[in-house]
Amino acid sequence: MLANFIGLDKFYVGMHNYLTQYAYNNAKTVDLWQALEAASGLKITAMAHTWTTQMGFPVVTVTKNGEKLWLTQERFLSNGTKDTESKWDVPVTFRTPAGVTNAGIWKADVATFELDAPGAEWAKINADQTAFFLTNYSSDMWKALQAPVSTQALGTLDRVSLLHTAFVLARAGLLSVGDALDFSGAYAQDTEYLVWKELSESLATYLRLFKHETWFPKFQAYIQRLYKAVMADLTWETRSSDLDITTNFRRDVIAMLSWAKDPAVVAEAAARF
C-alpha cells in the first residue's frame, strides 16, 4: 500500500537508505517512516501510524449523489458487529470509464470523504486493490459495476477483488446474499481462471450451507446457468495447448457443475468413470 502510494522507485530508495543507515544497529518503526518520507517528500508517518497502532482494517461504504461519491468508513468485523471508533488514514484511488484518479489521503478525522466523478456511469474504489480495505457500494452502484465486469472493461485484479469483496460482505451480513449472487452473474462470460477460482470457492460455501433448503434446486440451477459458457469452452478433453492452470480450471468447473447436479456433466461423468 505504501509502495503504491509513494511510488515504487521512491519506496525502493527509502528502503535502501533505511537498511543502510540502520545496518547492524537498532531501529524503531518511526525510523522506517522517516526514511520513506525523506525519499518521497511525502508525509506518511501519521498515515502509517493509524495502520500499525490499532487492530483490523476498514470497510469503506460508498454512495453516489449526482456527480459526487461519498465515502464513510468503519472497522470491518466478519461477525457483522459495529466498531465506529477505529479510523484509518486511507489512500484513495478510484477507477471510472475516464481512467484512474488518485484522490490522496483520506484523513482519519474526516468523517465523510467526497470525490468528484463527473459523468461516470460506474466507479470502482481502490483501483487494482492496492490499498488494504474492503469497499461496499450502494445497491445501484453494485448494479452499475456489473457492466464493466461483464465486458471486462475492468482488469483482472479489479474483477476478482469485487467478487471476493461481495461474498465477504455477504458472509458478514453487510450485503445480502441475493445481491452478491446477482452480482456474480456478471461473470458468466469471463475467461480468467482466477475469477472462476474465487467464484467457485465462494459458491461452494453456499452449496454446503444451503443443501437442505427447499429452494436449493433453484440455487443449483443458477450455478448450472452461470457455468454453462465456461464449461462449453473448456470441454472435457485435454488439449496439447493446455497449460497446467487450464487443467485446474477444467477440474474446478466440472466439480462445481457436479455439485450443482448439472445433467450433462453428471451423465458424462457416469459414462467416463
UniProtKB/TrEMBL annotation:
One of its GO terms (cellular component) is extracellular space. GO terms for biological process: peptide catabolic process; proteolysis. Residues 1-51 form the Peptidase M1 membrane alanine aminopeptidase domain. Pfam families: ERAP1_C, Peptidase_M1. GO terms for molecular function: metalloaminopeptidase activity; peptide binding; zinc ion binding. Residues 122-273 form the ERAP1-like C-terminal domain. It comes from the Eukaryota. InterPro entries: ERAP1-like_C_dom (IPR024571), Peptidase_M1_aminopeptidases (IPR050344), Peptidase_M1_dom (IPR014782), Peptidase_M4/M1_CTD_sf (IPR027268). Signal peptide: none annotated. Belongs to the peptidase M1 family. This is Peptidase M1 membrane alanine aminopeptidase domain-containing protein. It comes from Aphanomyces stellatus.
